[in-house]
């Protein structure tokens, strides 16, 4: 009788075999575009003024659960952007409205582990104009699509467990909640419990179809209101298939 491929010679259970696994590719820092969204490698000199104007429209609440900010003036924001742009991990992108040519937010890849095939999306800084917009969803779809195209097996989202809007956004985008790490960090003098979410490669094809359907022009009426909700599409994509 052939040996069980999920056990070793000692009869101990193992994870599923991954024959030929050689790891993923480190993401090239290059522009991504689609659905009127342009993700450009962060350039503080070029994107900084737009981001200052866009972020200045916020009351300050956008910075509550972020480890950075708020910034008192444009020079302070510019200094922080320069620090961000100097790193390979996190790998920062400016989220640009391609029609208007304006940077409205930031996103990044981080905890990039090609050998494990794991990568996280984070450092999400969405200005008021970007929040809950088609453009924001397009940015998330573009980053997720590239990660799986590069061979990553696991795509992560983490947030402060007090940040309910971020947790709702993760679920809307098709991430599955995996648990909360208690007392994971101290941020700005406060305890932070960290909620973990992920999408894995086997889920991506169905989720990709959900993004394509939701982002399609015909999913929005003449007022820009959605006809189908993304949360409904992604929940259906992840639902167990009946026999």
State the main characteristics.
243 residues, alpha+beta, eight-stranded mixed sheet, 29% helix, globular
Question: How would you characterize the overall build of this protein?
Answer:
The chain is an alpha+beta fold and 243 residues long. Helices cover 29% and strands 27% of the residues. The protein is built from six helices and eight strands; from the N terminus they run ββααβββαβαββαα. It has helices at residues 44-56, 74-85, 134-149, 164-172, 204-215, 230-238; strands spanning 32-34, 37-41, 91-97, 102-113, 118-126, 154-160, 176-187, 190-200. It has an eight-stranded mixed sheet, sandwiched between helices. β7 and β8 (190-200) form a beta hairpin. α1 (44-56) crosses α2 (74-85). The longest helix is centred in the middle third of the chain and has 16 residues, at 134-149. The mean pLDDT is 95.
């Amino acid at each position: 009788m052939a040996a069980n491929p999920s056990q070793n010679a000692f009869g101990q259970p193992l994870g599923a075999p991954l024959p030929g696994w050689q790891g993923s590719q480190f993401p090239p820092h290059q522009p991504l575009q689609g659905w009127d969204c342009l993700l450009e490698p962060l350039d503080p000199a070029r994107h900084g003024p737009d981001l200052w104007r866009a972020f200045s429209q916020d009351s300050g609440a956008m910075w509550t659960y972020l480890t950075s900010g708020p910034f008192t003036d444009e020079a302070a924001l510019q200094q922080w952007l320069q620090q961000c742009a100097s790193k390979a991990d996190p790998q920062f992108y400016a989220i640009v409205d391609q029609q208007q040519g304006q940077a409205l937010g930031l996103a990044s890849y981080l905890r990039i582990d090609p050998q494990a095939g794991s990568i996280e999306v984070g450092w999400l800084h969405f200005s008021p104009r970007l929040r809950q917009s088609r453009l924001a969803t397009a940015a998330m779809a573009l980053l997720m699509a590239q990660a799986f195209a590069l061979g990553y097996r696991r795509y992560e989202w983490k947030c402060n467990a007090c940040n309910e809007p971020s947790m709702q956004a993760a679920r809307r985008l098709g991430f599955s909640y995996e648990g909360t790490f208690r007392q994971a960090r101290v941020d700005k003098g406060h305890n932070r419990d960290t909620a973990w979410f992920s999408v894995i490669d086997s889920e991506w094809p169905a989720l990709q179809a959900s993004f394509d359907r939701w982002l399609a022009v015909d999913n929005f009426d003449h007022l820009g209101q959605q006809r189908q909700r993304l949360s409904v599409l992604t929940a259906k994509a992840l639902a167990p298939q009946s026999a």
